[in-house]
Amino acid sequence: MSRAEQAARPHSAREVEQKFRVHGLFRIPDLSTLAGVSAVDDLGVVELESAYYDTEDLRLAREGITLRRRTGDDEGWHLKLPAGAVGTRDELRLPLDDRDAPPAALAVLVRVITRTQPLRLVSTLRTTRARQLIRSDGKDAGELVDDTVHVVGSDGAVAARFRELELEERDGGPLIGTVATALTEAGAVGGEFVAKVVRALGPNAAAPPEVPELPVPKPKDPAHDTLVAYLSLHVRALRAADVAFRREPADPEAVHQLRVAARRLRSGLRTFRPLLDRPWAEELRAELAWFARALGELREGDVLRERLDRHCADLPPDLPAAEVKQLLADVLGGTVADARTRVGELLDDDRYLALHDRLVRAVARPRTAPDAERPARDVLPALVEKAWAKLDGAADDLTDDAPDDEWHAARLAAKRTRYAAEAVAPVLGGDAKAFAKQVEKVTEILGEHQDAAMAAAKARELANAEPASTDVAFALGVLASNERAYVHAARAAFADTWPHVRRAKWRRWMET
């Protein structure tokens, strides 16, 4: 990617629209007669041409993503990404240029989907668009477009033709629902959301994505199905977090979700290990561990900086809190910025992209042991019980004067137990979910313990470092002492909470 392309930041806008299939003779009803509509402005007819790019196996289309080069009206390079509810998408735009290939600034955003597969022209659509602006009490409630679409073949001839309506919400509120109902009553077919290029490309573009969203298995189904559903859920979460980080690298939540997804996948492979081919699972776990560790400096730096900065407000008024905050910004800010750059480079690393290839194959064809074919209700409870036993042992060794490392080890055991319970709860039901909620209480307390211990150590390190004024060093020492107070408060909270969490009633469902 060139420096100019790296500097180019796509403009992003959220669009909310509904699509309607209509036949060639369909007549749009008079929308100006609807309650709440004050006027319908005819915006005329425009012509536009859109060239769509995708991989050979149409990975983008199958994920509900479109990447196009549009000329005529609304010209530019456009990348559309699903954004939650059906019909809601984020459109990222760059100005039109003279290239036929998609700009790197857009292509890189979906690289976790395309990976090593090149983007190529897959379809060209020429559209005649008639537009109507729907107004209500002086506001633009929405826009209705009537598109007649011609699918252009590689020889330039029209290969197919169809018509559809798009109703895009602007400031419409419930009025948009009224308009949609009027269109449906007139014979338009709504309730679907299929991109034009998907209609043009046919069944292959509408096939399930590489990593499909899977239904929750039933307790009587093979445990294999629970494993695959779990892997699918968190591989999709990892890919979504990847796209989010590429879009907004400065957002701490994006790197957090990347790390959480990687850790849940690794923990899941550990939990389900008795159902898996051991060497296969361990190799995949090792790659996930490598990736999660590579994210650690950035995530921990974000948390540390935010916590210490926030707790500067608790310093006595005679101490130079502002100078301490500036020191934190200078020292930790630079470290975090460097770590953020390294994560951005990591996401384009061949090893990371190869990890995604392996994860896709793991969802499609996990290497399982014979017990994976047994019913989930007979197999899964024992997997969680094994994780619980390790947590119970680690927690029993904790004392108020135990080293931080022992408390951290208990935290890791608690997280593995929580993840294990949450992995099986959708299949095994409310008792497993209630157990997971109890263990979550422990992980939250131990997470606070770890954050406070790390913050205390960093504040003490900065207090002893050069250069720092005596007042700033003293303030950092106070900050470190305050963080150690949070450590001891977390230990007291754990002592109060643990007896309730370890009550046998939460684990009766594990008895098989």
Automatic annotation (TrEMBL):
The CYTH domain sits at: 13-204
- Domain CHAD span(s) in chain numbering: 220-503
Q: Which InterPro entries match?
A: CHAD_dom, CHAD_dom_sf, CYTH-like_dom_sf, CYTH_domain
Pfam families on file: CHAD, CYTH
> What name goes with this protein?
CHAD domain-containing protein
